[in-house]
Structure to design on (230 residues):
């Protein structure tokens, strides 16, 4: 596709459920990022991949959060045993290899944990 | 660690006037990029403008310009001739050149409201 695609667009989960959020980056983009954005706040960094390698996961808030990108393209962010504080918009972004390149963002997945 | 500071939670501007949104940053890396993104109520992140740390001139993109003061570590966004459609959240961000510390970090944002 032409842009970064995220699915689902909206997700409602009961507290304690596991969820999986998918990101399809722009074809050929080496770098892939996940961000968490609470209402009225700026995007908070979660994790970063170059190809299939997860270079930085320092932003993951707990061990309930796990991200993977096994073949260096599609990425999945998994949240286990969801809590109400996990409710947020999860943004995925990708960029070409050059490190100063801008990020191209998907539309996000809005997660609501009830 | 990178740090981006946007000190203006909200700003108001009259239509057709210019407005400056403040951004300061902190980094020890000599090579980095500075970015501004716009996020309207629809939620999409729209790239506006980029400034490289070694760029000699301030970046401009249409009605957007970046007032880059490297010694003061500031990268303020100037929007000229404001339009009603400019009402949105605006985020400043930085990305370092270091391949091992290459993630992009964002400020808390400024909500701009353009008044008719």
């Amino acid at each position: 596709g032409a842009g970064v695609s995220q699915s689902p667009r909206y997700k409602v989960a009961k507290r304690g459920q596991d969820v999986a959020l998918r990101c399809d980056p722009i074809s050929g983009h080496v770098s892939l990022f996940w961000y968490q954005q609470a209402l009225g706040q700026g995007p908070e960094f979660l994790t970063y991949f170059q190809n299939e390698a997860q270079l930085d996961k320092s932003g993951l808030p707990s061990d309930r959060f796990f991200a993977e990108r096994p073949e260096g393209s599609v990425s999945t962010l998994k949240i286990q045993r969801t809590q109400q504080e996990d409710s947020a918009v999860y943004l995925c972004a990708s960029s070409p290899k050059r490190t100063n390149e801008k990020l191209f963002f998907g539309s996000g997945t809005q997660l609501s944990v009830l | 660690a990178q740090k981006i500071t946007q000190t203006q939670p909200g700003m108001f501007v009259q239509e057709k006037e210019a407005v400056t949104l403040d951004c300061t940053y902190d980094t020890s890396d000599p090579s980095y990029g500075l970015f501004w993104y716009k996020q309207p109520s629809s939620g999409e992140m729209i790239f506006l403008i980029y400034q490289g740390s070694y760029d000699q001139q301030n970046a401009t993109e249409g009605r957007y310009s970046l007032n880059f003061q490297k010694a003061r570590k500031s990268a303020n966004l100037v929007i000229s001739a404001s339009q009603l459609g400019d009402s949105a959240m605006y985020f400043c961000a930085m990305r370092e050149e270091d391949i091992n510390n290459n993630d992009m970090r964002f400020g808390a944002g400024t909500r701009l409201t353009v008044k008719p």
Q: What stands out?
A: Chain A has a mean pLDDT of 93. The two ends of chain A are 33 Å apart (CA to CA). Residues 72 and 106 of chain A are 17 Å apart (CA to CA). Chain A touches chain B through 25 residues (CB under 8 Å).
